[in-house]
Design brief:
The complex is a heterodimer of chains A (145) and B (666).
Chain A lengths: L7 E9 L2 E6 L3 E6 L13 E7 L2 E7 H4 L12 E7 L2 E7 L1 E9 L3 E2 L13 E7 L2 E6 L1 H5 L2
Parallel strand pairs in A: 2-11, 5-7
Antiparallel strand pairs in A: 1-2, 1-8, 3-6, 4-5, 6-7, 9-10, 10-11
Chain B lengths: L3 H27 L4 H21 L2 H18 L7 H22 L9 H13 L19 H12 L3 E9 L6 H15 E7 L2 H5 L6 E8 L3 H9 L4 E9 L7 H6 L8 H11 L17 H28 L2 H24 L1 E3 L1 H4 L2 H12 L3 E6 L4 E3 H22 L3 H6 L6 E10 L2 E8 L6 H10 L5 H5 L3 H6 L22 H10 L3 E7 L3 E9 L3 E10 L2 E6 L3 E8 L3 E4 L2 E6 L2 E7 H4 L11 E9 L2 E7 L1 E10 L12 E6 L5 E5 L1 H4 L2
Parallel strand pairs in B: 6-8, 13-22, 17-19
Antiparallel strand pairs in B: 1-3, 1-4, 2-3, 5-7, 8-9, 9-11, 10-11, 12-13, 12-20, 14-18, 15-16, 16-17, 18-19, 21-22
Helix pairs in contact in B: 1-2, 1-4, 2-3, 3-4, 3-5, 4-5, 12-13, 15-16, 16-21
The chains are: A mainly beta (145), B alpha+beta (666).
């Protein structure tokens, strides 16, 4: 999948381990603080359960575990990014989320063979902004079971 | 005066009355001798007549009027209830429904009902030639009960006069209830009203034609009463007659208002019988207003947020331990849980509102087709979201017509096949897990695999090659394909140009599915599965270690405490003895791999659940309590989780999972 050509990409940047990732804003509904999660038995290990998001029961995925990173205890910075794709709405647990960025199209490059620790298949591209490296996530692949 | 503001009310109430008439007519068919049923029908028809006349729908009023006459004949046992007579009445009711629908759709409610009126007249006269034409407007007369009689007698002894006043409103009087009120007020100024016919409640609800009769105890002379009442506008005529104690006043007495002492016992005895049933005629129809569903949705969502905050408040107040705060929060909690119940129930409608038109339909179709059919309805109280209710009617009509037309065989065919002549169509509704199921099962001929295949091939719905590989189930599903119709000849019943594909698409548009199963010679089963977009169920909340789960009350037989030594093992499966039955024990702790599971104590809490005839005992740590909850889906991402049918949000804002017992009972 390639990034569609747009003048600018508005993205939500978030931190996972020591790397920065980004999701296009049109996929992001909201960013929530950590809250009690109800475990759902018999689901994949990275599905932490469901939360009550203003009356809607929303499944929560721990992105660290989704990508096979070592789990870390949740802290003050931990956030849940509520992302939507077609008729699915899920929450993604990330280490921190605090940035909305405009990515100029020319800053986006196709994913290199091996980047960071995430399998290349989840990656839509990478972007260099000033001296930061942002990994653009392909939400469809992340949500693919 | 503009009547349009009353139109919605008129339509709603008319529909309610028609429904009552429909239901009661079916009852009447079964128990033709039950006069209370006839009375109910008569009352509804009468009210309908009054309302439609007021609203200016003449065809409607004329037809109900004629219907009323026939009903009256039945009531007075001058006519007997025969299927033919009911057919004509049903036809009349059909016309009434058409007219009401036309009015609801903005039409003028006119309809050519002369034929039906003529039929009704023939019935009325054919069976009973010397009918009294005056019956439709019976002279209003008062019948006094013993108590009332004593009151009047006492009043007369104390020098009061008792008047019977017949008030007739003008034909074009619009605010009849208001005039009634004014009459009553005028009379109350100079005396006391003892009795009114029709009763006051009916007068207030404008359930009378033009005339009403009141009995007044007063010291004022008759002409003053007359004058007072005539001063009220829109009153056509007032007849004041002074009542003496020796019997009902004669015509001349009425005019002269003369005075004669005697007893009224005779009148009371004769008339009490005739009027007694009228006393219970207070309308039973419910009062409704219509609210846009979107508003209810918003209300619901807002309320859910409120519930979350309520949970937080409760927690804070517990932590602070401040007496006044705790008290206030507790009060708020109580109020909001009442509110919750109301809001949750507002959108839900029992499926009965759809089902109750089917007995009529089946009866009529069966007669047209010359078949004997019984319709059994099970689970009519199953509640469904209003939006689903509104849409589900037509597909069900279609499927039931289908079952009658293609499913159930003619009586002689059935007899030849060794089946009872009367076919049975069963209509079932029930909740199961995340869904509501509506099933239509008939014990008819079933679906002919060969005919379906042949037709599908000839219509090009399936290629001959593909047809080779289809199993029975897939072949049956072909009948839902667009352009498919198995009827060999197009009949009036199901061959109406719409096929089962329309049924399928309607149900799918509601997010549901429809499937069919059939056994040749034994019958077919159409099963509709509908999602519970918003459904309330009663659950038992249970605790398993730290987690809370909800078990639908509908699956629970009972809860029990089981001692450790009462658990046996059979084929490596733990079982318990539940009232003499061996029931497998399912440890939810293990099924759901609950973390931190401790050892079972000496006593184990179990919930006995059922799936059909089979039972299972679900072991939990403790019971929390029973609660009504909103059933929510886990979302599209988690579409199928084993033994979990959905989730709900508890009072504290947390999510609890709802256990699908069907998956746990093997």
């Amino acid at each position: 999948m390639t990034a569609s050509v747009q003048a600018d990409w508005k993205v939500i940047a978030f931190r996972l381990k020591d790397e920065e990732y980004a999701l296009p804003v049109q996929h992001v509904r909201s960013i929530e603080k950590m809250q009690p999660i109800t475990r759902v038995p018999g689901t994949a290990h990275y599905v932490k359960g469901v939360i009550n998001l203003r009356g809607v029961v929303t499944p929560i995925i721990d992105l660290r575990e989704r990508f096979g990173f070592a789990p870390e205890p949740y802290g003050e910075q931990t956030r849940i990014i509520i992302a939507a794709l077609e008729d699915m709405e899920v929450g993604l647990i990330v280490d921190a989320a605090n940035d909305v960025l405009d990515l100029p199209t020319e800053s986006i490059e196709p994913p290199p063979e091996a980047i960071g620790s995430v399998e290349a298949s989840y990656i839509d591209g990478v972007a260099k902004v000033e001296n930061r490296l942002l990994i653009l996530l392909d939400l469809a692949k992340v949500l693919d079971r | 005066m503009d009547m349009s503001q009353y139109l919605d009310l008129f339509i709603d109430e008319s529909k309610e009355h028609l429904q009552t008439i429909n239901e009661r007519l079916l009852e009447l068919e079964k128990t033709p001798e039950d006069m209370s049923v006839v009375n109910d029908i008569f009352r509804s028809a009468h009210t309908l007549k009054g309302m439609s006349a007021t609203m200016g729908f003449e065809d409607l009023a004329n037809l109900t009027h004629q219907m009323e006459n026939v009903l009256d004949g039945i009531r007075n046992r001058r006519l007997s209830v025969t299927p033919e007579l009911l057919d004509v009445i049903f036809e009349a009711v059909d016309h009434l429904e058409t007219m009401i629908s036309s009015i609801a759709a903005g039409g003028d409610g006119t309809c050519d009902v002369r034929g039906t009126i003529e039929l009704l007249k023939q019935i009325e006269q054919g069976e009973m030639p010397n009918k009294q034409a005056a019956r439709e407007e019976p002279p209003l007369e008062h019948a006094y009960g013993e108590f009332e009689y004593h009151v009047l007698e006492q009043a007369m002894e104390q020098g009061f006069s008792v008047y019977e006043i017949l008030v007739r409103l003008r034909d074009d009087c619009l605010l009849k209830a208001a005039r009634v009120y004014m009459v009553f007020e005028q009379l109350n100024e100079v005396g006391e009203i003892v009795k009114a016919t029709p009763p006051v409640e009916m007068l207030e609800e404008e359930q009378f034609d033009r005339e009403f009769l009141v009995t007044v105890v007063s010291k004022a002379p008759a002409d003053e009463l007359q004058k007072r009442l005539m001063s009220i506008s829109e009153i056509d005529d007032v007849k004041v007659s002074r009542l003496s104690s020796d019997g009902p006043p004669s015509e001349s007495e009425k005019a002269a208002a003369s005075q004669q002492p005697a007893a009224m016992e005779q009148a009371a005895a004769v008339q009490a019988e005739a009027e007694a049933p009228e006393k219970q005629t207070v309308k039973q129809a419910t009062k409704t207003i219509r609210v846009n569903i979107e508003r209810l949705d918003r209300l619901m969502n807002l309320f859910e947020e409120l519930v979350v905050d309520r949970g937080r408040l409760e927690q804070i107040s517990r932590e602070l331990n401040h007496a006044e705060l705790t008290e206030t929060v507790e009060r708020m909690s109580r109020i909001s849980s009442d509110l919750q119940t109301i809001i949750l129930n507002m959108r839900m409608v029992p499926v009965e509102t759809v089902f109750n038109r089917f007995p009529r339909m089946v009866r009529q179709l069966a007669r047209e087709l010359g078949k004997k059919v019984r319709l059994d309805i099970i689970g009519a109280d199953t509640e469904l979201d209003r939006t689903v209710i509104d849409e589900i009617g037509d597909p069900l009509v279609h499927l039931i017509r289908n079952a009658l037309d293609h499913g159930i065989e003619a009586p002689d065919v059935r007899a030849g096949r060794g089946k009872p002549e009367e076919g049975i169509i069963q209509l079932r509704a029930y909740h199961s897990g995340n869904h509501v199921f509506i099933e239509i099962e008939d014990d008819g001929a079933g679906i002919s695999r060969e005919k379906v295949l042949q037709k599908a091939k000839s219509r090009g719905i399936v290629s001959p090659q593909a047809a080779e590989h289809l199993n029975d189930q897939q072949i049956y599903e072909l009948i839902f394909a667009p352009g498919f119709s198995t009827a060999e000849k197009v009949s009036d019943i199901s061959g109406r140009g719409v096929g089962l594909d329309v049924v399928k698409s309607t149900i799918e548009s509601l997010g549901g599915t429809v499937s069919v199963d059939s056994q040749p010679g034994k019958g077919s089963l159409f099963s509709i599965q509908l999602p519970l977009t918003l459904s309330i169920i009663s659950v038992l909340l249970v605790q398993i270690v730290e987690e809370t789960y909800a078990i639908p009350l509908s699956s629970i037989i009972e809860t029990a405490l089981v001692k450790k030594e009462e658990i046996f093992s059979a084929h490596n499966q733990p079982v318990i003895d539940f009232r003499g039955k061996i029931v497998p024990l399912v440890r939810l702790k293990d099924v759901f791999a609950v973390p931190g599971a401790a050892d079972d104590g000496d006593v184990m809490a179990v919930v006995i659940v059922r799936k059909g005839e089979k039972l299972a005992a679900l072991a939990v740590d403790s019971f929390i309590g029973q609660q009504e909850v909103v059933l929510k889906s886990l979302g599209n991402y988690l579409s199928s989780v084993f033994a979990i049918s959905g989730a709900t949000i508890l009072g504290d804002g947390r999510v609890a999972l709802i256990i699908d017992c069907n998956a746990l009972v093997k």
